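_Full entry_
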Amino acid sequence: MGMVDQALHLLSEKNVVEFDDERKAAMVSNLMVVLCGEQQVNPIVNAGTLYQ
C-alpha cells in the first residue's frame, strides 16, 4: 500500500492528474493488481473516457 499511496501523492503533488474519489479508487485498484500480479504487465492506452 505504501507504493500506491506514494504514487497517488506524487501524481497530485506534481499536478499530473486530479482524482475525484471514484477515479482514485479505480487507480488504487489498478496499481494493486499490477503490484500483486504474477505475470508481466502489458500497458493499455485508454483512448476514451467513461465520463461525459
